[in-house]
Every structure is written in structure tokens, then in C-alpha cells.
Design goal:
The protein is mainly β. It has two domains: 124 residues, Sandwich (Immunoglobulin-like), CATH 2.60.40; 424 residues, no CATH class. The strands form eight sheets. The protein has an eight-stranded antiparallel β-sheet with strand order 12-10-9-11-13-17-30-20. A five-stranded antiparallel β-sheet has the order 2-1-3-7-5. β9 and β10 form a beta hairpin. It is globular.
Length: 588
Amino acid sequence: MKKGIIIALILMSIGFALVTATLTINGVINLGFNKDDYDIYFSKAIVDGKDKSREVIDEKTRKKITYETGELKTIGERSVLEFEVTNNSRQYDATVEIECVPKNQEKFDEYVTIKSEMPVDIIKAQSREKGTVTVELIKSSIESISEEFTCTITATATERDDNPEVLLAENSCENIPIPTLDEGNKLIPVTINDSGIITKVSKDNPNWYNYCEKKWANAVILNDNEDTPNDGEQIDMSKVESMFVWIPKYKYRLWNVETTNTNVEVHTIDIEFDTEDTTEENGVSCVTPKESGNIGSCSNGEYMTHPAFLAFGGNGFWIGKFEVGYKGANDKASAQVESSDPSHIIVKPNAYSWRRNIVKNMFTAAQNYEETLNSHMLKNTEWGAVAYLSHSIFGINKEITINNNNQNKTGYAALPSTDQSKVTGESGDGAEYNTDWKDENGVTASTTGNITGVYDMSGGAWEYVAAYAAETQKTDSGFQPNELENLDKRFVDIYDKDSKIDEYTKMILGDATGEMGPFTNYQDDDGSSRYHNNWYADDSGFAEVSSPWFNRGGFYNSGVIAGQFGFHRNTGGVYGGGGFRLALAPTN
């Protein structure tokens, strides 16, 4: 009987193997033109050798140039408009044609000729091309004549089969300031692969970084008892004390100097790497402001050296890759320590953020961490420099994913399945809530969208930055008013004493506060009323003398109001959400 059962099963399986079925699925694919991705605009206008971009390019649309030539008096004399057109699309090339038509053809032809030219007929996605309009006097006149003409550029979207990653600006990647290391070899240049493996490289290795491929330069500081590895040698994470990312010096195109332009939406921030300061002395009219409330002669459309790069006179700075953790902490509670001891600083993934500390302790610990490297507590302008770079073609170019790890572990990213659409957002510690820094989802919490970027700039801990409203009498931070006055101004951003929670014109250009306007106040789903910015509706409360210290990024459960453009204020005292971040500014 037992044998018979076995035979029956075998025959049954053979029988099933002979049965076949044909299944049919009919589907329809809908292809559509992504209008939101197609953005063609004028990015520069030079009239007779002078940059007139901010004067002649329409500020609202950036799709119209209106200019006037100088007076043409001599036969053969010319006036030349040099313009630049940017195709900011990521998936469409643009075929371009230019045609100029005088208002009065007959009279125009009698006295002048007009020649328009674009050397190319296709502007590739994520690229810029130049053109010219030349007006030449061919006949003298005994009276003053003003003639008008209109040039129309027709830019038609065309298909492409790849998605470019790089906007080819004039100075593009050739002018990226070389990362500054130190003579003592404390900072070790490294590469980090997608699995999180750290490898020592030579500073001259061409594969160390490539910002046009969103691959930012990384370096580490090892524990005191570790030997310096050889080039090509892997470095175990247990040997690493702190990790840093290089932010190269750049200038950026201003778009909201007065925080009054309600027509400017979230956009790719135009950045050009440059080691030279933008000042009046080198022919550019925009003077970089040195303090809050002073916008100098800066105007929308101009490029300005980001102020984060001016304090130390170098070609960039290093930012901690993660929030500062507490060395030796083995849980969330043990990382809550009120101390200024720099020996407890670590900057690495899966560490517990150092919180519940006063600002003076954070400031002191950061400065004493590596004095020869000008280590310091990250400033508000430095936060802004990183946030802007993240939202350029050299970064992730969108809002980064929140770190919603409720144990305040560094380097985590919320899963897409968690609900971050509210305040409070969904948080936890485990595979159903988040993934770590090297996971495919984890890198969405990086400023580059890959493992080479900066983490924890959304959520994690609220990060105090070294930035305060002047003349505050508040001492919760541990600083007495006279101590604040005597701080080395290279290490702190000082804001106007008259600033208020919604006084965004008191910003320092580049700090990623007021430029993110306009701002609106409304009640969130948790019942609290907050100010929100125009960039992803992040929390946007400006510092004032009663709550004088800025903090950035949001908390692990801040949900929809967290982000690299979020900011708020606090007293500078101890609270459970308050951590900080490290920066280095070596000048060798």
C-alpha cells in the first residue's frame, strides 16, 4: 500500500507537467511630455563688455532681455549683446532658432545692420550655450534716432534617451577648489564605496572626488592609537573617530535678496566654483555682506561668493559627515551629557547624537577638538552653504529624506512607507521604520543622494549652530553677554538685535533662512501654529533676543516640517532635541 501511494504521486506530477496554458496580458503605455522638467531661461547678459544681467533680464520669468545700446556715432561702430541660455531640463534637449525683426524695417535697414548668432542649434539638457546680437552703424545721421527691434529665440523640446547628471557651466568641474588637508596628516583622504568600505587614497588620486558626478570628497580622522594606513589600504570603521566632507568654495546666483519675490519657487540653485571673492574691486557690483541685515549692493541675478568661505580665507571647509555623537555611549540616554570634553566627540554612522548640552559646552568642545585645523561648531552660514550645494546640480537637488530614528542614531533614513506628511512624523528604530547610511534607501538622506554626501541634515537631532541674535541678555547657553562680545568672529554668525521670529530680512545672505521665502503662518495638524518657508514648507522661526540661538534641520519626529532648509530658534540651553555638528577650516 505504501508503495502504491508513491507511484500515484509520481504519476500525478507527470500528468501536471503535460498540462500547459497560454496567458495573455494587454497593456497600454502612456507617454507624456513633462512640462515641469522643461525650463529654458536667460542666465547671463553682457552689453558691450559689461555684465548687465540683473538690469536687463526679466527678474520674474528670466525669459526676456530688454536692453538699450550705447549711442552709435561712427560708421562701423558696433554694440554687442552677449547672452547665455541655460537648458535646465534633465531629460529634454532643446533645438534653438533666433530671429531679429526691427519695428521699422525700412528705416532700420538704412542706418544699421543687426546680426544674431547662436553657434549651436541644439542646447543639450543640463547645459548652457552662448549667443550674440550685434548692431552695427552703416550710415551716419544728422539727428538722434532710436529704433526698436525684437529678437525671438524659439527653443523646442526634443527627445533624448539618457538623463544627464551634469550642467556644463563655464568653469564646471575644472575650477573646483582642491580639498585642503593638514601638514600633520590628521585628515586622511578616503573613498567610500557603496557598501561603506573606507579606503585610504592619495590626495592626488583623480578618483578621490568628482563633484560633477555628485561624488564629494571625504576624509577621516583616526583614533589616537591608530597608525596611518598606506594608499589603497582599507580602514575599518572601528579605527575611525570622525568623518568629514569637503565643501568647495563657490559663488551662487542670488534670487531672493529682499525676501519679497513671491514668484520664485523651489529651483536648482545656480552655483559656480571659484576661489576668488566676488567684490566691487574685481568688477562685480555685488558686495558679500559680512553681517546680518547688510545686503550691500547685492541684487537678484548676480553671483555672490557664499559668505561661509570668507571667515578663514581658505578655499572651502570640511563639515562633519554626521551629527556629533558621544564616544562611549551605548544608548540614547547615555549620550545626553552636559560637558565640554572634546575627547567624547565622534562623527560616524550608528552613533548616538550628543544632546542635552548647553551651547557654550558645544562651542568649547568643538574648538578644542582639533585646534590646528580650526575645528569649530558649525555656523549658520556654513549650514546654508551645504544646503545650497545640496540643491544644485552638484547635489541631490531636492529635499533630503528625514532621519526618523527615535534613538537618535546618526546616518539613518526613513523608509518611504513611513508617514512623514504630518507633524508628528512616524519614527522608530528598526527595519520597519528606517535604514542605515549605506542602504539604497539610506543614501536618500545624503546631500548627494549617494554615500559620499552629508547626512542628518533633516531630522535626527535639532542642531544648534554657532549663530545668535546680538545683544541678548539670555544666559541659558552658558555664555554671559560680555563673553559673546569677545568671541572670535570667525567662529560665529551674529544677527541683528532687532530680529524677530518673522523678521527674515535680518538674514545673512546664503544662510538658507530668508532666501527661502515668502513665509506663511498656519496651524499644523498637531495644533501648533508655525511659520513655514516656500521651500518644502519647512519650519522657519527666526532667532530673536529672547530665543537667540539658531538650530537647524528638525527632530527625528518632525515629519513634514523637517529638512535641510528648516530652521528655528532656542535659548541655547539644554533640551532633549538639541545636538550640534563639527566643522574644520584648515588653511595649509
